[in-house]
Each structure stands twice: as structure tokens, then as C-alpha cells.
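Handout, section B. The chain below has 174 residues.
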Amino acid sequence: IGHRLAKELREQGYVVTQFEGAGKQGPISMVFLQAPRRRMRPVIEHVIHAYHEVTPGLFARAEAELRALGGAAMAPALDELCILRDDQIEHMAKEEAVLFPWILSPRARTAVAPIRAMQLEHRESLARLDELRRLIDAARAGASSARFDELEHSLREHIELEDLVLFPRALSGG
């Protein structure tokens, strides 16, 4: 995810430095972005257009695929997916209504509490994604679920962009 993100940001004219490292669950890629506050608006617009606007459709396609695969074995995964969907819709609404305008304001550095709250929700979403992956793999005996894979990739990339690029930049005063 980090490589693709760094490439996309460079193509938009940002100065990006990428670091490889070892995380709790394996290799990680960290991205550092140099962007004055006036350049944060395009990053936020990118998050909204590339993730917030498409996420409901990704959930709908993943849910339809899991229902088609069906059976009682898939019921726990569908329940978990619906909870994650509802949480994400609420999460994105909070970002758009409160956090993103705050980040774009001269008070961006004071957004510590709402950013930490969003990061906590991100960790909860990642844990829910991990559980969903486990449930789907168990129900499908390890066979892939293309629509869920697409949703999972998008959510992880979205969270990485916010946690590793947008939020640190906002707190540094942009």
C-alpha cells in the first residue's frame, strides 16, 4: 500500500519520503509527506473522492458476494461486515463534518483529541477487518473473495493514508 500511495502523491507534486520497517504483523512501509497546510486540501479531497465516496459501494458489492456464496457458515461474516459498514459510514461522516474542516483551519494543531479518536476507530476497524478475513477464510476454506479483498485493500489504504500522512501533517502545523 505504501508504495502505491507514495507514487500517487508524487504524481500530484508532493515531496514524499518512504521508509521500510518491521511492524507487529510483518513488514510495513511508512510515508512522510511534506505539504504546507494550503496543500492539505487536495489530500483531504483525495481521501473523500478515492475512499469516502466509493466505500458504500464496495461494502454493497462485498455483501452481495458473501450472500451469493451463502450458507450458514457465511452468516457470522455477514453480521461482522454489516457492523463494520455502519461503523465506517458513521466514521467518515465525522471526518467530513468535524475533523477535515478542523484540519484545514488555522487551529489544525489543536485537533489532537479528535485525531486520536479517529485513530482509535481505525485500530478497531483493522481488528474487525482481521476478524472478517478469518471468518471468510474459515467459511470458504481459504478460497478468495474478490469483492471483500477489494474492500479490505481500500479500507487499509485509506487508514494508512490518514494515519501516516494526513494526521501527522495536521498535528505538525501543516
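Note. The chain has six helices and two strands. Compare this with the example in section A.
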